[in-house]
Write a structure and sequence with these properties.
alpha/beta; 6 helices; binds adenosine monophosphate; five-stranded parallel β-sheet; about 180 residues
Length: about 180
């Protein structure tokens, strides 16, 4: 994978959305076709032999590579959304994150016990949103849960990988120490 290409196209915005946060803006990766291809090729390489049947994207930046990956893997795509957005019956999970609290939900008919699931999002910080998504997916009794992030952000207070632990098999494309 061309790490340099991806890192040089990732934009850092200091103090967004609140003072002290170094926001890793993946919109500058998504707008570059070479970066989309590079990320998709690497994700396909990581997951093509895992028997993935559903990719679950976490709203909203997880929808971009998640949907591309679902197509490339021949899997279905499922949205894990913020509250009040999904029209059907849902199950919900609340969680804490690097800057605040939130809730995510998923349709109750989105997955079934024979699914092998890959959860996709742009960035792993505390791991709170990923763990909430893992807990939602696990509630369906699925066979396996994998997790992929474009960026793993690590610093003294951010140890998302350890927070997820063995709840899911985890891969990340770029590790950034802040
Ligand atoms: P967490 O639940 O703490 O792992 O936070 C991950 C979620 O919050 C991801 O969906 C990210 O999009 C977003 N996020 C948290 N921290 C940052 C950051 N420093 N830069 C960009 N996005 C972030």
């Amino acid at each position: 994978m061309n790490t340099e290409l991806l890192l040089s196209n990732l934009r850092n915005i200091p103090d967004f959305p609140i003072p002290g946060i170094q926001f890793k803006d993946v919109s500058t990766l998504f707008k570059n076709p070479a970066c989309i291809s590079e990320m998709a090729d690497e994700m396909v390489r990581l997951y093509k032999d895992k028997g993935i049947t559903k990719v679950v994207g976490i709203e909203s930046r997880g929808f971009v590579m998640g949907a591309i990956l679902a197509d490339r893997l021949g899997a279905g795509f499922v949205m894990c959304r913020k509250p009040g957005k999904l029209p059907g019956e849902t199950i919900k999970q609340s969680y804490g994150k690097e800057y605040g609290k939130d809730v995510i939900e998923i349709h109750t008919d989105a997955l079934s016990p024979d699914d092998v699931v890959l959860i996709q999002d742009d960035l792993l910080a505390t791991g709170g949103s990923a763990k909430a998504a893992i807990d939602l997916v696990r509630a369906f009794g699925v066979k396996e849960v994998h997790c992929n992030f474009i960026i793993e952000l690590r610093c003294e207070g951010l140890k998302g990988r350890e927070f997820i632990g063995d709840a899911a098999e985890l891969t990340t494309l770029l590790t950034i120490e802040d």
